[in-house]
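Input.
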Amino acid sequence: MKIISIGKYIAVASILIFGLSACTKDFLGKPQGNDVNVDSIFSTSQKSQAAIAMAYAESLSVGITLSGWDGNRDYGLCSSTLSHISGELNDLKYNWEDGWMIQRSGMKADDGSGKQISDDSFVFNFKCLRQNYLVMENIDKVKDMSKSEKDQVKAEMKTLTAYRYEEMFKRYGGVPIVTKSLSATDSIKIPRASLQQTLDFIVKLCDEAAQVLPNSYPDNWKGRVTKGVALAIKAEALMFAARPLFNSATPYLDLGANNKLICFGNVDQNRWQKAADACKAVLDWANSTKFYHVINTGSPLDDYGTAVSTPNNPEVLLAYKYQGNLGNYDQRTEGGGANGMSFYQISQYVKADGTEQTWATTESPYSEYAAKMQQMEPRYKASAAAAGMDAWNNPNDVNWNSQTMSGRSTWEGRGGTEACGRRVKFWYHAGTRNWFEFPIYRLAEFYLDCAEAYNELGQPSVALPYLNVIRDRAGLPEITETNQVNLRKMIQREWAVEFYEEGHRFFDVKHWKLPDIGNGIIGGDKKSFVFTYVNGSYGLVASDYKTYVTKVVYTGYWSPNQYLSPIPIKEINKGYLVQNPRY
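Output.
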């Protein structure tokens, strides 16, 4: 399986983010703590852009869903994505892949060399932070940059720092708080801060940055963080603080005197109010700027396809603007092995008329399958291609027809398993384009956030309009449910569909503490569609398929210790950090 490595492209990504012409290779190759080097880099505005771009490239690349190849686990997963371990995608093909191992035995603090097998590289986070602080601490040295420009760069670095801390917050709980670039004489053995201290640090950085950052940038500076991004990071952190995993009197597993690292120690409804206020602030800001809005022209497949795929569209607040080669069609559309949708995921979608779809549990004709697929809601059709059928989101394009995609299936000869849809999301009207800009924050998130928060506050009449903005765009009937428990399930289902493969699901299901998390979501029986073929091998076009059926294809792993990620054993063995429970 071939999945792109972010790590080796960071230098290129740094340039592409801002369209700069200066090269960062020399900067990367020199010791970052060297005073002469720092003075040189921050001598002019043009030179400093390389350091700024590097801060963006490193801070935003970690955890990108489709960036799964990292053989040394320097940045995160080795040959896997978040979607492979969240229940969204089917099992991987090889037992050396991190996704395969995590699905069989869970995340671990030690891979045999002291590194973690996890969704994130704990240590790399602090490499990102160091780069942010180096820029923040040295930007005043630039001679041809105004004070307001320097203040803006500092605010950008605060925002990137808050983003990295928010990403660690939802993965680990409380983490060490670093407030400057550490030198050789500084103590690097900084203990974990409490959950509350970590949250307060994120909020403080975002509040400070939001006072300075602009609402938008000229086209040649697209990709830099705006005021709205600072508001979005704050809102997301407060949402995770309000959800049941942290917002609890007792932790998911006892950590004794260190429970404050993974639990607030009480249930406080005011956390939901803070989250609601912060999420509404994002929407109010977007409405006031006139630059950002949920795309709804009345053509649901095209609108959703545009929102998740088209660069610089008005719904994306922040994207990872890497435009390098993401490889050939194998990497984008592989079947059951690499990028095949799970049965649990397809079960979250409904038919275009809003009613439930049913799937065969006994061997049934392919014609039945094809008819059911045509009935599916537009967001499914914008996200996946069905077996034997051309991609709906790239109509009449030979690059995206059934034969082109099926001929590259990674599950050929594996009992006819082709999963419940091949990946086409992020490639709306892509043609031969081999890159995309991964959406980190889309405005739709904050409509669902508001719906969730207001429902938890017992205000369904306030929650429903936010939820129905997303339903309306999807071309589905509006929801009128007012029972809190029922509406909660509907909102959570909407999250699963709207943000398929966008890096949310792995954390959402854990922080919601869903009751079925070990029974089909992350752990438990994993199902898929299994086909038989006319030629006995695999299908290229519809006429090659005979039957389909839903079957269990493997069993996933779940244990309560998996709610939060492990810190690498090498760091724990240094004696300054407390490990998360049962790692």
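Residues 147-172 form the longest helix (26 residues).
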